[in-house]
Amino acid sequence: MRVLILTFAAMATLTACHQKSDRQILTETCVAEGETPATCQCITAAMEENLSPGLFRRTAAAIGREKRRVGKYVESLKLEEQLEFASVLSEMVSCELSQPDAEIVVD
What we know:
Elements: H1 2-18, H2 22-32, H3 37-50, H4 53-65, H5 70-75, H6 79-97
């Protein structure tokens, strides 16, 4: 019986060690959508620093794990949460513009 309990405890520990953080999940999803790793790391950091921990965690679950579209996810949030996202938007946009190979097109 003791061996069985130790085996389950070891498996649980190994599983926990291999889980990706919310930050990693969001960054990888962003890269998979075609952005550069540096841009994605910047965007994810801005979200993590400026969104409440609960909203950041739910965002990682919805966008990263469930693969929901960002626009649809934000539309599904309460008004207060949408405003929280809006307050981070300019910082997220500046992440793309701060990349050395980014182009600014003026008509």
